[in-house]
Each structure stands twice: as structure tokens, then as C-alpha cells.
């Protein structure tokens, strides 16, 4: 099983700032990596797939990068609606999720 | 716009069988893979398995002995059955559609499709009681 580790657990940022979230895989997943945003009481929302491709309708302030074992999600000019928990997920070998990073004020 | 809706009992007794259904509206169940996932405070997000519209399932190895996922194309729905449930199966269960830009990997002498989830149901909470 590919273990996905996200850091930090919690990230405190202010509106307008940049947030950088990290995700590390226990073995290479090439670019088969997705990012999701989840707010309380809602299902996860797909933001990024293929490590760097934004899903339809996702604002350009969300960007993904990386390949192999190390990945980042960057949220530029953070908006109030961006405070949420973010998960990474690999789909190179079966399908596993990271434990999440909470972005808070 | 495709929408997914989970339905089923919210309370299941320990050692019994959990059964959920996912209704697909606003689009056809054909030409996609469809998935069940769950989320609990203790285990986070966990993939349960996939079903292709043609009927080929693919399960998480850790749950494979207890899981069955099936599809009913004529009714545009797919279903989850999980047997011998315990308190560890208490979670919010989601159905979801797999994206079309996934990957294929080889295991057990076969190729399996795996992907991100681009459409999700709202989720249904299931509590396993003793």
C-alpha cells in the first residue's frame, strides 16, 4: 500500500496570503496525484488531478506541482472561502489518501 | 450536470450486513467507473472499491473479503454490500464517479483502473451498533 503523508497538520494563514501544502508518497506515484478540498458537512471537492491539472471551475489561485514522491498544493491570495481541510490522493497503485491539512485563520 | 445520491439505513447492527445504493441522475452510468468510499475520524478517507458500468468490480484488498459492489444499468444506480460489520465500519459513506484520466496498474495478473473522483454524493452516515 502506498502511504500518503501530508504536512503540516494545520496551517494558519491570513486572507490574501499564500499557503503551501505538502504531500509525500512512500513510493513513486509519478503524477497520478489528486488534491481535494473539504468543508464541514460536505463531500470532498476535486481541485487538482494529474498533479497539476485544475478541475473545471477551480480558481487559478489553486496550483499543484511535483512528481514522483513529493507534491505541493499552493493557494495564492487566500480567500475566506478557502479555509477548509485539504487532502491528497494517489491513484498510481490502488487508491490511498493522505491524512489532510487544515487551513485555518 | 451529474448528481449522485446515496440511500440506505443509517443504523446497522454489529455482525449484520450494510447495504447502500447510489442513484445517478443528470447523466448515464455508462462509460464510467463508479466508486464507494468512506470517511471516519479514526481512519480518514478510505477507498472501498470500484465498479465499471460493464460490471467489473475492483475492491480495496483490506475489505475484499466482505465487500460486493454491483451495478444496475437500467436503473442508473450502483450498490454496496458490506458483510459482518463491526464498530470499525461506522463512517460516512460516499459514492463517487471516477475521472477519465486515471491510470492502469497491474496486480494479481490483471490490469486495474484507478483514478481521482470528480463527482461525489453528499454522503450518508452509517452507525454500527452493538
List the helices and strands and how they pair.
The complex is a heterodimer of chains A (about 100) and B (about 130).
Chain A: E1 4-7, E2 10-12, E3 19-25, E4 33-38, E5 45-49, E6 53-54, E7 62-67, E8 70-75, E9 84-90, E10 96-97, E11 101-104
Chain B: E1 3-7, E2 11-13, E3 18-25, E4 33-40, E5 44-52, E6 57-59, E7 67-72, E8 77-82, E9 91-98, E10 103-107, E11 110-114, E12 117-120, E13 124-129
Parallel strand pairs in B: 2-13
Antiparallel strand pairs in B: 1-3, 3-8, 4-5, 4-9, 5-6, 7-8, 9-12, 9-13, 10-11
Describe the structure.
The complex is a heterodimer of chains A (105) and B (130). With 105 residues, chain A is mostly beta strands. Chain A contains no helices and 11 strands. Helix content of chain A is 0%, strand content 50%. In chain A, strands 2, 4, 5, 6, 9, 10 and 11 form a 7-stranded mixed β-sheet that branches. Chain A has a 4-stranded antiparallel β-sheet with strand order 1-3-8-7, with no helix packed on it. Chain A is globular. In chain B, 0% of the residues lie in helices and 58% in strands. Chain B has no helices and 13 strands. In chain B, strand 5 and strand 6 (57-59) form a beta hairpin. Chain A binds chain B through residues 30, 32, 34, 36, 42-46, 49-50, 53, 55, 87, 89, 91-97, 99-100, and chain B through 44-47, 60-61, 94, 96, 99, 101-103, 105, 107, 112, 114-118, 120-123.
Quick synopsis:
Chain A is 0% helix and 50% strand. Chain A has 105 residues and is mainly β. The chains are: A mainly beta (105), B mainly beta (130).
Query: Any idea what the shape of chain A is?
Result: globular
Largest sheet of chain A: 7 strands, mixed
Average pLDDT of chain A: 97
| Count of separate DSSP helical elements of chain A | 0
- Tertiary shape of chain B: globular
**DSSP summary, beta strand count of chain A:** 11
Structural class of chain B: mainly beta
- As a percent range, the share of strand residues of chain A is over 45%
- Oligomeric state of the chains? heterodimer
The overall pLDDT of chain B, averaged over residues, is 94
Helix amount of chain B: under 10%
Summarize the largest interface: chains and residue counts.
Answer: A-B, 24 and 24 residues
**Uncertain ranges of chain B:** none
Q: In terms of structural class, how would the helical and strand content of chain A be classed? A: mainly beta
Evaluate the radius of gyration of chain A: 13 Å
Number of strands of chain B: 13
Main pleated-sheet profile of chain B: 7 strands, mixed
Q: How many separate helices of chain B? A: 0
